[in-house]
Design a protein that fits this description.
The structure holds 2 protein chains of 2 kinds. Chain A is an all-alpha fold. Chain A has a domain of 196 residues. Chain A is built from 11 helices and 2 strands. The N and C termini of chain A lie far apart (44 Å). Classes of the chains: A mainly alpha, B mainly alpha.
Chain lengths: 291, 288
């Protein structure tokens, strides 16, 4: 049970990551592999703020997320948008975003060194809480609570506001939305802001469990992609479930096989879903293919 | 002189690997990010036989090809069912799984410590100017591969595999079993890359799992795209350029501490600029 609880908690952070990815993907229709790295930079900024200015964890997290949002917006408007306008296929953009990932990862390695930085909500080691015989640490509580809160806010935003409705409309049919007179480019930018914001929050939460490393940019974007694909690309609830499933599967994998097979478990899960149910648990559409 | 020879050998090894990559990605449209894992499988298979069993080099050569071919054949079953972005993702996943295997199958691969003192071809050990002979063997192999691929691509088989790249449905309707064509291409491409891996192992004589992580897979794909997809000379140009360019950074006088990072950053920049301005690469004939 403890393993499943741990899995659910880290899974809720993966889910947040996956939701952001899914949201961006559903409006732009390409895979942005730099997504995870931008989020990790947000976590790094939070780490620096906590250590040099001894800021509170939540404030540092928000500040880091703002920096990440700035980078995310720049990458979209300087790189990806012009590429789409030049008629680049989704594969071309996928490869280019990988280039951006490599650049950002190595710049982070230059700034923050190639080691794991530990992050915790408090300097002291706090005792865990006992919950029906299960132990939950304050760090884990923070992860679960913030992830849940973010998801609720996002769900309300998408369902209740005009902006949210426009975002969902683009996800359904971009051309039709344009014809109706909505400013799609502005909405795409807004989606980048929201998606990057929650991804940076999520990366800072995950950092509580596994620390921060430059290579986590790749790891996290892969987890986001897996969570999003399992749930069905473009579906918020799907990504939530996908993230939780991935978290539990990984923790069970660690328990039964050992931590060194973590990536293997994650990718096997991805391959099985792509083969057996490529549209994911909740999707309206199949994964877009080139042919 | 020795340094130039070193660069030439490395460029040749990577050229061979990229020929394999390009055969699958350029001519058949299988944009795979797992050829680094194939290089690793060839390298480990050959190195284990050479080091622990003392087999002659030609036997290791065949074994490396066979092991990689087998791996590619097995991988092709899940992989070829997928298209486009999901194909790319799962093949990328395979490079992680292979890395996990290299790292954790300690009995076979010696884990993170890797294998040391891997012998090279016997002919090379007998003579003094060994590196030249090594390069000559490699160049001969590249020429044979070029000739072979050229013949394949000119044959009716070659026409069909390019047709599967353009439109699989139409090719199927024209009466070709596209899956078996694509599978055979993927296996041969794996064999070529695996043999390049064997040469890498016996040249640098020490291998460990981090050599064959996903970075290598990405690098091979970048080389193929830079040189140009569906271009044989492009494969060689792409590999050589990306071996030589980061070496030039050495002469800029960058401190050692940031050399590796700046090399990686230069790869990233090349990739972005290429995708932005010329997605077909230098000599490419196929745009992804």
């Amino acid at each position: 049970m403890q393993i499943i609880l741990n899995g659910l908690i880290v899974g809720s952070a993966y889910a947040l990551m996956g939701i952001g990815f899914s949201l961006i993907y559903s409006t732009v229709r390409y895979f942005n592999l730099a997504y995870g790295m931008v989020a990790v930079i947000g976590a790094y900024v939070a780490y620096t703020l906590m250590n040099s200015w001894s800021l509170n964890y939540v404030i540092a997290m928000l500040a880091g997320a703002l920096v990440a949002v700035l980078i995310g917006m720049l990458s979209s408007s300087i790189l990806f948008k012009p590429m789409v306008r030049r008629g680049g296929s989704s594969l071309v953009i996928l490869v280019a975003s990988f280039g951006l990932l490599i650049i950002l990862q190595n710049i982070s390695a230059l700034i923050w060194q190639n080691t794991t930085r530990a992050l915790s909500i408090s300097d002291r080691i706090l005792p865990g809480y006992n919950l029906f015989g299960l132990i939950i640490t304050p760090n884990q509580l923070m992860i679960g609570a913030v992830a849940l809160l973010m998801m609720l806010i996002l769900e309300l935003f998408l369902k209740k506001t005009r902006y949210g409705m426009a975002i969902r409309a683009i996800g359904d049919n971009q051309e039709l939305t344009k014809v109706l007179g909505l400013k799609t480019e502005q909405i795409i930018l807004a989606v980048y802001v929201i998606g990057t914001f929650i991804s940076a929050i999520s990366a800072t939460l995950i950092a509580l469990e596994i620390g921060i490393r430059p290579t986590h940019g790749v790891t996290l974007v892969i987890k986001a992609i897996i969570a999003a694909i399992i749930g069905g690309l473009g579906s918020i609830r799907g990504a939530l479930l996908g993230g939780l499933l991935l978290g539990v599967a990984e923790n069970l994998g660690i328990y039964f096989l050992g931590g060194q097979w973590q990536d293997t478990v994650a990718f096997t899960l991805l391959a099985v879903f792509l083969l057996v149910r490529p549209e994911g648990l909740f999707a309206k559409k199949r994964l877009v293919s080139v042919n | 002189m020795d340094y130039l020879l070193h660069i030439a050998i490395l460029s040749s090894i990577y050229s061979l690997a990229v020929l394999g990559q390009n055969y699958a990605s350029g001519y058949t449209g299988l944009i795979s990010i797992n050829h680094g894992a194939f290089m690793g499988i060839g390298a480990y298979a050959g190195a284990i036989l050479l080091k622990w069993y003392g087999v002659p080099f030609p036997v290791a050569f065949l074994a490396a090809g066979a092991a990689t071919g087998l791996a590619a054949w097995l991988l092709s079953f899940p992989l070829l069912k997928l298209k486009g972005d999901s194909f790319v993702l799962v093949s990328f996943g395979f490079s992680f799984i292979a890395f996990n295997l290299f790292l954790n199958w300690r009995g076979l691969t010696n884990g993170a410590l890797g294998l040391k003192a891997i012998p090279g071809p016997e002919l090379v050990n007998l003579l003094d100017n060994t590196k030249i002979i090594f390069l000559a063997i490699l160049l001969a192999l590249i020429l044979i591969t070029l000739w072979g691929l050229h013949k394949i691509l000119q044959s009716s088989y070659g026409v069909v595999i390019r047709a599967t790249r353009e439109n699989q449905k139409v090719t199927q309707i024209a009466g070709h079993c596209t899956d078996s064509y694509r599978r055979s291409v993927f296996v041969l491409s794996g064999v070529i890359t695996g043999i390049a891996g064997l040469f890498l192992a016996s040249y640098i004589s020490t291998i460990d799992p981090t050599l064959f992580n996903y970075h290598l897979s990405v690098l091979l794909l970048i080389m193929a795209i830079l040189g140009g997809l569906a271009s044989l000379k492009g494969s060689i140009a792409g590999a050589t350029l990306l071996i030589v360019l980061p070496e030039l950074l050495r002469f800029l006088g960058l401190p050692n501490s940031i050399l590796a990072e700046s090399q990686q950053i230069s790869y990233g920049l090349i990739l972005i600029l290429l995708m932005y301005y010329r997605p077909v690469g230098l000599f490419g004939t196929y745009k992804i």
